[in-house]
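User: Hello, can you help with two protein structures?

Assistant: Certainly.
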Amino acid sequence: MDQCIYLDYQATTPCDPRVVEAMLPYFTNSFGNAHSDHALGQQAQHAVEHARAQVAGLLGVSPTEIIFTSGATEANNIAIQGAVKYLLKQGNPARRVITVCTEHKAVLETIHSLAEWGIEIVILPVDDEGLIDPEHLKKALETPTLLVSIMAANNETSVLHPIEELAQIAHEYGALFHCDMAQAIGKISPLSFQHIDLASLSGHKLYAPKGVGALYISRKPRVRVSALFHGGYQERGIRSGTLAVPLIVGLGAACEILKQEGKQEISGLAQYKQQFLEGLRKAIPAIRLNGSLEKSLPNSMNLWFPGVQALDLFKKTPHLYLSTGSACTMSSLMPSYVLLAMGKSKEQALQSLRLSFGRMTTYPQIQQVIDALSCAYEDIMAGR
């Protein structure tokens, strides 16, 4: 039986063993509530603040700008709904929020929910490489706008938007700028938060546990968000609830590892991607890349296999843990809305899959994946 190979690092990552080791004491011996006054509580609080500093250190921001959440979805909701809610309460006359058609559902659905508050939702298109035209953003911003939300790296195609440029444009027109950075953290170096007001990240995308994330909220200039729910005033009242100390410690440890090793890791993953694409294109000349190659993450890609359903490739290669980036069941496949938005046909979308490498990927696995996919493709095309 072929050895299983994990190729879905954009969906989630395994916990780094060093992260697990850092977390373990806070499940047992150091189990205190971080808001208790006694020694165990203070020990937990110290661990939380140390982790906050580690997250901030990776991002190059102040620890006071980091709020812990349960993940990027919650961070997106707090950033988008919280910022708009605060601005409306302050009497801001603008009633428009802008985003992009290829955003993650955690952003698109959150923004669509703002319609209940009388907000006009503007969804910008992308070109055939998945990139937004800055001129489209400028045109949309001619109407007074509260917030622009654009992700740094797409979760299906890995395409990178020119975030610094787009954020600066938003500010020129007086709008706040939020960025979903869940896919970008740990894969782009150096990071720049210039002109970014709010940014979301998720622990399980960077070798930390599931169930923890963070929201960056700029303090210079000062950005304010209203709480979406209320409780014990944890995290400055922005995100009430007892802190998940072990998970937060894990996120901090993962960020510290990336700060120390990230540049070298990114370089290695980029080499894997180049070697893989060269090898696969040689084995299957017909394949095509969905999205920009130059403006994309170093570890991932979305590939079109003409003439072959992605579901059939899955069945032929059960030892390869791949994804389409869309809703998938054992019997059917829905076309990716991201690929459709890029002008791809339904047929092309159903013939495409997402593949990503990560920290645990090895060089021998690269050739094994090339061999497995090319053999499967050849067999399906030959009717075998």
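That covers the first. Now for the second protein you mentioned:
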Amino acid sequence: MYDTVKILITGAASGIGQGLARRLGRPGQHLVLGDCHSEGLDVTRRLCETQGATVRSRVIDTRDRQAMAEWIHEESIGRLDMVFACAGITGGLPPARGAAPAPEREEHTRLMIETNLLGSLNTLFPAMDVMKKQARDQHGRRGQICMMASVAGFVSYPGTPSYSASKAALDRFTIATAPTLEKAGITLTSVCCGFVDTPMVKENRFPMPGLVSTDEAVQRILQGTLRGRRRVTFPKWLVFGARLADLLPPRLTELYYCRQPSAQPEGMPDY
């Protein structure tokens, strides 16, 4: 299923990106791994090489549009079969100042949008350019691209305004672009999952309903991407609840959301 293909993964130093690299790393496999954290990236590279994969890695910030384009084009010589855009961050409200909670900081908001949305687009567009020039495989595909959105993109959550906004925009853009790209032989998939047991959520100070292991998340993501699904969602009950809540008047959903521990100041890290 994964024989002699070249796969590029961003956010490969930890979490889902690292999990995908470890699952895909095997003899005959060519992995191109990127992340801004060099130490974790080295760990992932060594693990995949130990499993027999050929690995090239680059310490890179996905927010750097030019560097990302140069890197992806450079590493795509020959062919680029699959891309997993996993780089992203999360975070919540800052500490309260006085009686009333403080709104999300501007710097935090901009960092979230630049990383989760623009960083993902900096991965998507160069990959699209490369794949459009490739010959179709035996399945009629030129390549497959998977974008890591979130269930949070289905709701307007007061505890994580910019995270919800960045993931909503990424999911909508991915789903809306997919039909056009498919005509060119490129399959585009959006992943909208709930809480995954990764280092990114370790500092959350609240119960995380529907928490799944990284291995389970990787399995679901791979299955959906390989099948060419438009959107991969899990857990289903959490997705259903989020979509249902989004149909209600905002002031009504706020009565519930604003009482949740995750919507409180310092409920999750404020970068």
